[in-house]
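Shipment paperwork, digital attachment
Item: protein structure file
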Amino acid sequence: MTEPVGVVVVTHNSAAIIGDCLASIAAAPEVGAVVVVDSGSSDATVELAMNAVPEAVVLSLDGNQGYAAGINAGVRALDAAGSVLVLNPDIRLAVGVIRALQAALAEPGTGIAVPRIVDDHGHLQHSLRRRPTLLRAIGEAVLGGGRSGRFPALGEMVMATPPYEEAGVHDWATGAAMLISRSCLDAVGPWDESFFLYSEETDFALRAAAAGFSLRYTPEATVTHLGGDAMTSPQLYARLTTNRLTLYRRHHARVASATYRGALILGEALRAPFAPTHRAALRALL
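Attachment content:
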């Protein structure tokens, strides 16, 4: 018999969205313990979470400590032997999602299972990614993330349709919804809290791969993701971009990292005249 899945939801000023998220979790029979980790909310997130699922454990961190810190605190609070489903509060689970993710996680060598993600209109979100490389950074700088993603050698984003229609192993995926095996969590260790927000899921997936655990995508599991503000908030987009550099530096030598930084600067400089997000990212990189 499959162990019940522990669920960790990390919140920050999520009062408008946490209720529907927890309702979809409570409706899943595969769920065991639920931990909501609130990272310094100033709204009614904590109270709403307590009322939505009275049996859930709700932890309040001292200030906004970031997504990875919330995940680590939640995993520690679960203290269970089974797999852990990590969720953003703007995720909505469809019926059968967890069961499909469990089946994917049961495939030999798999440490992380991720679902197909759609927006609130049912449109596919391109959530699959390739390992960061210099050539991909240059490709994205010149062509943009969408165009470069059509060519595996030139972009991190997986933009072609077939990979989203078939189950398969990928380098990493966006961290809005991930089912992680206990053996993978134990082998890889805590999520890196220094990222605060963005690239922590990339780092965890790459470390998992180095430890022998693959990340498996399954289209049989579909979740709805309301989406974040990274593409519209200059501050968040700047953090996303600088964290990409931080991640690359941790896995590569100084010369390669300097070249990667140059590619990021080129991409943001080309687009800075047209959007405040790119201007903010360029300032941060410089």
